[in-house]
Write a structure and sequence with these properties.
The protein has helices at residues 43-50, 93-103, 108-121, 137-149, 167-183, 195-201, and strands at residues 2-12, 18-28, 32-36, 58-62, 78-81, 155-159, 187-192, 204-209, 214-220. The protein has 228 residues and is α/β, with parallel strands linked by helices. The structure holds adenosine-5'-diphosphate (2 copies). This is Nitrate/sulfonate/bicarbonate ABC transporter ATP-binding protein.
Length: 228
């Protein structure tokens, strides 16, 4: 079952930069895709388009398994984790993880168990009262993963999420994401420029090339990952 289909997408910025040209990609339910390629090849642009965050210049993008809102965008099935954790400094961990539910009109009281479940998934159940300034970079990233999971998305998009962290922390977080994938039905698209990370994490590697950005190679890794 396809979650997202991109057909011959091109994206030209107003500056004239052709970020993507004729890019096609289908994301199937249950996959763990690494989107791999050099800096500037359009990985972030492609991910934003998959999330419904960016206009396309030509081509078709569809979310065949999602409820589509009046603006033609998928409603609630997709969460995004950016490289910067972007937590609100004046809210504690609980309040930050509550945000996506708050935007949907769910009160803190009603959201409590969902928020605590999300924090438990990333091992931060004891830090719900802490403020972002009290947390390490890795912990802040865990909070932003919990925040992304609290709406129970089908598709989790991660844009070089751990690139700013030290290698040991990054490896721990990679293991957390793998465990999340193995123990839930979630589908992941993970942008990286690390060949190691892509081989370690995914069951399909989509390699992009630059100028213009598009899919250059697409490898299923049939034997690498199995769900528990
Ligand atoms: P990657 O994530 O692979 O590093 P990006 O998708 O960020 O690549 O960028 C692809 C190309 O589009 C690059 O040449 C980049 O400079 C350009 N680009 C990205 N965002 C914008 C923007 N908002 N305006 C103009 N050019 C952009
Ligand atoms: P990432 O690390 O996610 O690939 P970048 O560091 O390339 O992102 O870009 C950060 C922000 O700047 C993004 O919002 C991107 O769209 C924008 N951007 C990137 N390249 C350009 C560019 N050449 N002109 C204008 N905006 C850009």
């Amino acid at each position: 079952r396809a979650l997202v289909t991109m057909a011959r997408i091109s994206k030209v910025f107003s500056s004239g930069t052709v970020a993507l040209s004729d890019m096609s990609l289908t994301v199937e339910s249950g996959e763990f895709i690494s989107l791999l390629g050099p800096s500037g090849c359009g990985k972030s642009t492609a991910l934003r388009i998959i999330a419904g965050l960016g206009d396309v210049s030509s081509g078709e993008i569809d979310w065949p398994s999602s409820r589509i809102n009046s603006r033609g965008l998928p409603e609630g099935d997709i969460s995004f984790v950016f490289q910067e954790p972007t937590l609100l400094p004046w809210k504690n961990v609980f309040g930050n993880v509550h945000l996506p539910l708050k935007l949907r009109g769910v009160s803190k009281t009603a959201a409590r168990s969902q928020i605590m479940d999300g924090l438990a998934t990333v091992g931060l159940q004891d830090f719900s009262d802490a403020y972002p300034r009290e947390l390490s970079g890795g912990m802040k990233m865990r909070v932003s993963i919990a925040r992304a999971l609290v709406t129970k998305p089908k598709l989790l998009l991660m844009d070089e999420p751990f690139a700013a962290l030290d290698e040991i922390t990054r490896q721990k977080l990679n293991d957390d994401v793998l465990k999340l994938w193995k123990t839930t039905g979630i589908t992941v698209v993970f942008v990286t420029h690390s060949v190691f990370e892509s081989a370690y994490l995914s069951n399909r590697i989509v390699v992009m090339k630059a100028r213009p950005g598009r899919v250059h190679a697409d490898f299923p890794l049939a034997t690498s990952l199995e769900r528990d």
